[in-house]
Amino acid sequence: MSLLDELRLPAGPVDLRTYDTNSAPGVGADKETGKQVLAELGPTLIELQTKLFASKESDDPRRMLLVLQGMDTSGKGGVLKHTVGLVDPVGVKITSFKAPTEEERAQDFLWRIEKAVPEPGYLGVFDRSHYEDVLIGRVRELAAPAEIERRYDAINDFEKRLAEDGTVILKCMLHISPKEQKKRLLARLEDPAKHWKYSPGDLDERQLWDRYQEAYEIALERTNTEYAPWYLVPSDKKWYRNLAIGELLLETLDRLGLDWPAPRFDVAEEKRRLEEDTIS
Amino acid sequence: MSLLDELRLPAGPVDLRTYDTNSAPGVGADKETGKQVLAELGPTLIELQTKLFASKESDDPRRMLLVLQGMDTSGKGGVLKHTVGLVDPVGVKITSFKAPTEEERAQDFLWRIEKAVPEPGYLGVFDRSHYEDVLIGRVRELAAPAEIERRYDAINDFEKRLAEDGTVILKCMLHISPKEQKKRLLARLEDPAKHWKYSPGDLDERQLWDRYQEAYEIALERTNTEYAPWYLVPSDKKWYRNLAIGELLLETLDRLGLDWPAPRFDVAEEKRRLEEDTIS
Prior knowledge:
2 copies of one chain form a homodimer.
Chain A: H1 3-7, H2 31-55, E1 63-70, H3 76-82, E2 92-96, H4 102-105, H5 111-114, E3 123-127, H6 136-139, H7 145-164, E4 167-175, H8 178-190, H9 200-206, H10 209-222, E5 230-234, H11 238-255, H12 267-276
Parallel strand pairs in A: 1-3, 1-4, 2-3, 4-5
């Protein structure tokens, strides 16, 4: 069974409490072997991603978008470093979405997202995304209820358009427990090398844990489409989270059935020209 | 002796033929140990780069810009994959400059460059750069001679402004021999997995080798400033090129004397708040 099948969120209402954040589904490995297995995915991941990158040379419109969502400390940064870090950076565009600027707030919530959509051949990665606009947006009431309602459909329309335009979308929710978050926040407070990752606001958001989970459940249910499905990644185990997303990336790229593009020039003629030249 | 000192291009006129493209200065290693040494730089590189990335949290304006220039096949892509690929991709912004679009050609040559300058905390990497505008620009006479002349000073003014704004600039010329280029072009033609990297135009440019070398010599001499110095990296040996640029990056980051930023919150108070909370 592929991990894409294993971690695919089923259609219908979502109850996040029924998913064990500390599990490691579909992977017969422990921490040490898990890290090893991830490292061993590297060469295949690079080859597949390079084929994707090469395919733009034959006007193939395909590209990939990995969306990373999760509560604070769920490990979006860790996935960027350990999993996305495995592929060739020339073909990767990471966008880390922060609180919108004044200019961004003056526009539709998808305006800044649209600008970050990957070009053909690229692996785009969203570290947080338009989903914040129905997560913190909902919990903190940053927009009127009718506007929040409107956004679920707007997101589906947007993602459908991307898919039709050649974008393969992989949306991952990094699912952690509040206990694990407490441990990680404490680790940030105890290590001067991690203070910069901490903000007192993180603890304020933590107080709203249940409301965030509810907002996630609604968002996951309403935007879990065929063209942009959600994957629920148990993320209390960092090694599992990194490995699982590496495997999801690999399987998704593999299903594209990419091959090296055919040359658009006469190979034999170019060889002849090159062999005859006397530049030295 | 540091590699920054070893590879620093001396001030004054440049004769590229006096630099051995197949040498490996400042590194007592062969191919196998060289690859090993590069891999071992990884953790230190990541720590230094993460400190740079963290420093923006304390409003430190510093950022870094690595400029990669060199003839076709000199290995800009290899450096991105093997050297830049060692650091945490969240803090890296790579821009690959192609032939300018019509919109870009309607503006000053630095217009598109300016938009790609890294923000504080980031390592920006230019895969080709504004130097193309005095290289192919000069050789192919894409602009009038007076305009080409103007550009050297414009580049210096631009780079000076970046440096004053907190950008540490590391400019590397990947120096290869025409013989090595021939070998690499042939390898691209012989491997279907590399056809996408080849364009018949590469061979047309190759016919102008001497004029390109001359254009490089002029550009190197005229833009080799204290605030944005040039480093000449012998690049016939791929392993040396990757290792040397890794070492140059590391030494440059190290000289910034970065430390983890001081927290802007009361650590003890945050710990107390966290330990007292009962979210579960």
